């Protein structure tokens, strides 16, 4: 159960990071509210995951999932340029997250 919540909270990290950008410095209400709600939920999931998974592994998985999804979303929405090298590097991050799960 801890792994499932950790993965979901990593996904929420991508949501709050994107909402933070959309809030334009907390000047827009809806993205700001989405940021606050998903930030709290993401941290709660990370905290629960850390209760059963070693802190280094839990944090690396959480950050990895959030970073990959945030970067992928930015490329899909054309806020960042998609290049072959960026995609390869993101796939490398995914491989590292999977590897951490495999050895845990």
Structure description:
The chain has 104 residues and is mainly alpha-helical. It has one domain (2-103). It is 84% helix and 0% strand. It has helices spanning 2-22, 29-52, 55-76, 84-103. α1 (2-22) crosses α3 (55-76), α2 (29-52) packs antiparallel against α3 and α3 (55-76) runs antiparallel to α4. The two termini are 14 Å apart. The model has no long low-confidence stretch (mean pLDDT 95).
Blueprint of the fold:
Elements: H1 2-22, H2 29-52, H3 55-76, H4 84-103
Helix pairs in contact: 1-2, 1-3, 2-3, 3-4
Keywords: Cell membrane, Membrane, Transmembrane, Transmembrane helix, Transport
Transmembrane segments: 33-50, 57-76, 82-103
Protein name: Multidrug efflux SMR transporter
List key phrases describing it:
transmembrane, mainly alpha, single chain, 4 helices, 84% helix, 104 residues, flat
Low-confidence sequence ranges:
none
Strand content: under 5%
Quote the average pLDDT. 95
**What integer value in Å does the Rg equal?**
14 Å
Shape: flat
The portion of residues assigned to helices is over 70%
- How is the biggest beta sheet arranged? none
Number of DSSP strand runs? 0
Please give the count of helices. Answer: 4
Could you say how many structural domains there are in total? 1
- SSE arrangement, N to C: HHHH
- Cα distance spanning the termini: 14 Å
Structural class: mainly alpha
